[in-house]
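Lay summary. Proteins are chains of building blocks that fold into shapes, and those shapes determine what they do. In this project we predict the shape from the chain. Here is one chain we studied, written as its sequence of building blocks.
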Amino acid sequence: MPDVMALTKRITQAGVRPNPQISTLIEDTRRSTRTTTLQLNQPIELGGKRAARIDAAERGRDAASADFDAKRAEIRAAVMTAFFDVLA
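And here is the predicted shape, written in a compact code that computers can read:
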């Protein structure tokens, strides 16, 4: 179950938009001719990339949940078999 819970958190992470980036550029070190550039970039996702990330994270969570349920059923069947073997 911890894997399923961790994968549920990945859905939230998948939905987060990219962080803006800031950069600086300083050309020429002399004070009188120095040029300083400050740049701010914000990636804009197109083509459904964010929705695809969320969908992939949801599918991963669903697969882990199905695997967990299968393991639980397998253990339950083994316990029931052992119980009836003891009774026999």
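What the prediction tells us: Helices lie at 2-14, 49-87.
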